[in-house]
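chain below, 380 aa
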Amino acid sequence: MNKILFTPEQKRKVGSVSFFQNDYICGMINVLGNFLTLTTFGESHGEAYGGIIHNFPAGLEVNSKKIQRELDRRRPGQSAIVTQRKEKDKIRFLSGIFEGKTTGTPIGFLVENENQRSKDYDHIADVYRPGHADYTYDQKFGIRDHRGGGKSSARETLNWVVAGSMAKQLISEISVQAYVSSVGDIVCEKPYRQLDLNMTESNIVRCPDKEVSEQMIEKIKEIKKEGNTIGGTITCVIKNVPAGFGEPVFSKLQAELAKAMLNINAAKGFEYGSGFQGSKMTGREHNDLFAEDFSTRSNFSGGIQGGISNGMDIYFRVAFKPVATLLRPQESFNKKGEKVVLEGKGRHDPCVLPRAVPVVEALAAFVLADMYLIQKMRRI
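prediction:
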């Protein structure tokens, strides 16, 4: 790696000497987690995606079929309302697993790209697409891979699904289930307790309410015909989390979950428990009173108090914006500042929500596994 050297005066201007290691800065801050960590690599139209998971405990029997099943839930081309890019997304483990069990050493994995159509992006090599990271990547790095968005592509999330599936197996007694709770103005009004979350996979939009799911699917199909896109929300419900997960100050459980969720491409908002509705309530209405077994009669806290899990269900919502690529003309500018008319080409999701459900679950599971291992070290 090329070193970027700084004088003591330049370091003072940055304001944090602790950020510098051996007088250089790494090219990207590219690690998820605190103790259990994931480092990833890959671009949308590169050779492959992959990652390394550090500090995964030894001795866990790995179910590779479950990992592949999670990748299949995320992969493109699975229905008429998602991108038609055809990728098998077959997982290959390179290290850290021997005779079907984790060894305690870093777990390396790889998923090869097979169905790139880079020519679909030739027309944007020097053009900034509205709503995309094209301009910001150019400003940050001075260079960008325009093919499918390069590193900014949501295809990166397959790395997270692999790591999250491993995490699910580590904390197998904890249930992590997400579902699409709204598409545009079509909302699943029922609270999660009134839904059978096992029905989430019964339809292509991944909403457990049959009637609402049909409306959502029709809405996405209409939007797709227009060359347009649409956003919505995903709700995640986590059950059987013991009390004690999460740190008191800068790694509060809700903060770790929010950080993970807001790293998802197109994520625009996060709320847990009563969320923004809680701001309209009084303390008397909002306080979760205890029952005799120290469960709470209500759960406006969303299973987290003081940044630490209290044993109740953890539930949160993530808001997603519409996909930025439109298959219709839009005004924009090229690198020279010249006005251009731009129209998206290729294969794109009209709505990210159906394929984002397993991503939300994976990141939530990874955060919980990280907090689980930290808590195991916290007390004798």
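DSSP finds eight helices and 17 strands in the chain. The longest helix spans residues 353-378.
thats it, cya
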